Amino acid sequence: MSDTVLSGWTPRSMRLGLYIHLPFCAKRCGYCSFNTAPYAPAAMGRFLAAVGAEIDLLAGTPWAASSTLATVFVGGGTPSLATEDELAALLDRLRRRFAVDAGAEITVECNPESVSRERLAGYRRAGVNRISLGVQSLDDTVLPALNRLHTAAEARRAFDAARAAGFDNVSADLIYGLPGLGQATWELTVRRLLEWEPDHLSAYALTLDEGSLWHAAGVRGLPLEEEVTAQYRALARRAGEAGYEHYEISNYARRGRRSAHNQIYWRAEEYLGLGPGACGFLGDVRYANVKPVDRYCALVESGRAPLASHESLTPRQRLAERLILGLRLRDGIPAEWLAERIGVEPGRLPALLDAWKERGLLIEDAGRVRLSEAGFLLSDALFVDLL
After folding, report:
1. How far is 231 from 72, CA to CA, in rounded Å?
2. What residues contact 386, with CB distance under 8 A and at least 6 apart?
3. What backbone phi and psi angles, to 5 degrees, belong to 168?
4. What ranges do the domains of the chain cover?
5. How far apart (Å, rounded) are the C-alpha atoms in residues 209 and 232?
6. I want to staple 33 with a disulfide (CB 3.0 to 4.6 A). Which of 14, 83, 211, 294 is the partner?
7. CA dist 98 → 71, 94, 101, 273, 276 (Å)
8. Contact present, 369 and 335 (Cβ < 8 Å)
9. What is the CA radius of gyration of the chain?
10. Is 56:96 a contact under the CB 8 Å cutoff?
11. Which of 83-87, 227-231, 318-322 has the lowest mean pLDDT?
12. What is the rounded average pLDDT for all residues in the chain?
């Protein structure tokens, strides 16, 4: 595909999110299915130059000059392997080619072992205003089994370093349903993390997705489904008691600290993707970049867009995605969206949705429909029917 394809995809909105994928990792975690590559300083230099070239390609589209970036999220991989100077140069290049909101949320994912107060202070000077810290566990017997390179104490030092560097918006990630993770250990992890008073918390159940080492080789000691459910409930209860809003199935936030970037995804709004394997959504088109880092770099170095695939969503696909993504949020969706979906398939859905309402899983109020806390837990079953 050529860059002329991307030029023809006109956004519906001129306010966009931007995701930048930095794929390098010092070590790949067993559960990870993301697009990653081994870290080497020389590879980082070539890669960042290629991302700059992709920024220039996007900036050359007819709609770019009238677009504004409302959020920027640098994910990976391990983005915090980039030095403060490398990240500053990347963000400077972005600002020269695109309008970035003065109050844009700019997030960088960080691993505890790859940050220091100095590096984080450099990120802050470069314009980063939100840190997402990949804690995953606070049990030093669990962390090595995940192939994580930090200890629980190092995770705490990284969090404190972010605060010392001036960040007042710090998120932490956890995983539950891990091999060998008992209820008592999980509750202790949650309690200890909440004592840090992060501004945001993301907690995901372990999934053995295709592309992960554990999916290929298998893993022993996985907890039973009822144990995973108990860990989810314990997290929701303790986070609520600590004053966090459970605003999305897997996410909790203090007042005013929801993830602005991730809400773009959940509201089925538009965003650009930069880097190998990154995905974007413009107009009614979803697209993905090539995954191999060398292939990605070679394409943009030759002036070509690094696209691997794209698809135009049908009206029914768009409707289904709006429903499923929107119902992940505590805010829910406008009731008319659900009525529109029922109109597509009137025979089956009304009775199903009525049953969910009778069980207290789906709540309709003031013209909006949302899932209850119990509905969050069972949401996958409803989402399948809405598709």
Report:
1. 32
2. 320, 323, 324, 327, 341, 349
3. -105, 15
4. 3-266, 315-386
5. 19
6. 211
7. 12, 6, 10, 14, 20
8. yes
9. 21
10. no
11. 318-322
12. 94
User: Per the structure block, which two tokens stand in for 310?
Assistant: 């794209």
Q: Give residue-wise pLDDT tens across range 143-161.
A: 999 999 999 999 999 999 9
- Residue 242 vs residues 30, 52, 87, 205, 377: alpha-carbon distances, Å: 31, 42, 34, 21, 20
User: At residue 374, does pLDDT exceed 80?
Assistant: yes
Q: Exposed, middle or buried: residue 124 (CB in 10 Å: 0-12, 13-18, 19+)?
A: middle
309: nearest Cα among 289, 280, 331, 338: 289
85: burial class by Cβ within 10 Å (0-12, 13-18, 19+)? exposed
With contact defined as beta carbons under 8 Å apart, do 343 and 356 qualify? Answer: no
Express as a percent the part of the chain with pLDDT over 70: 99
Name the residue among 206, 178, 173 with its Cα closest to residue 190: 173
Q: Is 113 helix (H, G, I), strand (E, B) or coil?
A: helix
Supply φ then ψ for residue 206, to 5 degrees: -60, 130
Which CATH number is correct for 3-266, 3.30.70.260, 3.30.379.10, 3.80.30.20, 1.20.1440.230? 3.80.30.20
Per-position b or e across 304-319, b if 16+ CB within 10 A of its CB: ebbbbebeebeeeeeb
Q: What does residue 82 show for φ and ψ, rounded to 5 degrees? A: -75, 135
pTM (2 d.p.): 0.96
DSSP percent split of the chain into helix, strand, coil, nearest 5: 45, 25, 35
Q: Which two tokens stand for residue 15?
A: 């306010």
| Average pLDDT for 60-81 | 96
3-state SS class at 339: helix
Count the helices and strands in the chain (H runs, E runs).
15, 17
CATH 2.60.120.10 fits 315-386, yes or no: no
Cis omega (within 30 of 0) for bond into 77? yes
Give the number of other Cβ atoms within 10 Å of residue 266's Cβ.
21
Per-residue pLDDT tens digits for 315-369: 999 999 999 999 999 999 999 999 998 888 777 888 889 999 999 999 999 999 9
Convert the pLDDT of each residue in 20-49 to its tens digit: 999 999 999 989 989 999 999 889 999 999
Residue 1, pLDDT above cutoff 70: no
- Asked whether 146 and 137 are in contact (CB, 8 A), the reply is yes
